[in-house]
Amino acid sequence: MAMIARAQTLAGAIDMHAHSDPDGTPRSIDAIDLARLAKSRGMRAIVLKNHYEPTASLAYLVRKEVPGIEVFGGISLDLTVGGVNPAAVEWMTKVKGGYGKVVWMPTFDSEHQVTSSGEQRPFARVAKDGKLVPEVIQVISIVKAHDLVLETGHSSPEEALLIIREAKRQGVRSILVTHAMNSYVGMSIAQMQEAAKLGAYLEFVWVRPGSDAAKAYVPAIRAVGPEFCVISSDLGQAANPLHPDGLLGLYQYLKSQGFSEAEIDRMSKVNPAKLLGLD
Fold first, then answer.
1. At what angle do helices 31-40 and 243-256 cross, to 10 degrees?
2. How is residue 125 annotated by DSSP?
3. Which of 13, 43, 50, 257 is the most exposed place for a label (fewest CB within 10 A)?
4. What pLDDT score was predicted for residue 4?
5. Is the pTM of this model over 0.85?
């Protein structure tokens, strides 16, 4: 008789938020080695994320080097690509392979992150006086035309809800609130529930299991509902665990807090596959 419940595995898991080298900031692993590692652990797909340069070309090369795992890229609309720049998004859709699937609204250069951290530096704006700027509306139309995944980046909760409403208005199919509870975003449970009602998914990324941040995830995911949640790693930082290990640790922590295998599968496999159009 089995002494322990069947272990949660990474078979079929998808990481929507994976940082890797080459980058301009220290990373724990490069994209090719990450794809090899993820594949060896049974993962189905990874999305390569870089705050400052598009990763569609990188995804193409990694797929060539590591067949047997689906690798995607995207573009984060920070200042190095000209901020909220429709031309940059449009070009990504033309890159050979069609693996540029995700568009993040500004992250490290978002107005919300720059001003809330008290930094004095230029930023990329998504809204002014409570209204989305025209470039955001244009980018959303490109996302819709090419059936991409729209992510809210490090926008404020209020900005994120404006973006989600406009995306729904334009008929965007796949919307994800980037790490909704991360300090750079900071959505309340009520705001997360509103985002889910509008049809967006909420992303929860790796935090140390058992930490205050991890404990806060439990009631939030319950309140929003696992059917609207996605678990990603956001790993790749030099001092943190590697992506598959971090994901597995987070799954196991959630399981210890009463989430079922089916609920964890929904958040780590089913929902990300729907976002990427893999189901």
1. 40
2. -
3. 257
4. 41
5. yes
CA distances from 223 to 68, 149, 151, 191 (A): 36, 24, 21, 11
Torsion from C-alpha of 174, 227, 59, 135, nearest 10 degrees: 30
Beta bridge partners of 110: 124
Give pLDDT tens digits for 79-100. 999 999 999 999 999 999 999 9
Asked whether 265 and 14 are in contact (CB, 8 A), the reply is no
HSE-up (13 A, CA, CB side) for residue 211: 8
Four-CA torsion 186, 75, 140, 226, nearest 10 degrees: -50
- Which residues contact residue 181 at a Cβ distance below 8 angstroms, ignoring those fewer than 6 apart? 187, 192, 204, 213, 216, 217, 220
Q: Which residues contact 7 (CB under 8 A, 6 or more apart)?
A: none
* DSSP notation for 72-85: EEEEE-SGGGTSS-
For residue 279, what pLDDT is reported? 76
All residues at 6 or more sequence positions from 24 whose CB lies less than 8 Å from its CB, including other chains: 52
In sequence order, which ranges of the chain are alpha helices (DSSP H)?
31-40, 56-65, 86-92, 111-116, 134-145, 157-170, 189-197, 212-224, 243-256, 261-265, 271-276
Asked if 42 contacts 12 with a C-beta cutoff of 8 angstroms, the reply is yes
Hey, what's the torsion of the CAs at 57, 77, 135, 72, to 10 degrees? Answer: 40
* Statement: residue 1 has pLDDT above 50: no
- Count of CB atoms situated within 10 Å of the CB of 159: 24
Identify which of 163, 152, 105 has the alpha carbon closest to the alpha carbon of residue 130: 163
Q: What is the 3-state secondary structure (H, E, C) of 151-194?
A: ECCCCCHHHHHHHHHHHHHHCCCEEEECCCCCCCCCCCHHHHHH
Query: What integer pLDDT is reported at residue 6 of this predicted model?
Result: 47
Q: What pLDDT does residue 8 have?
A: 67
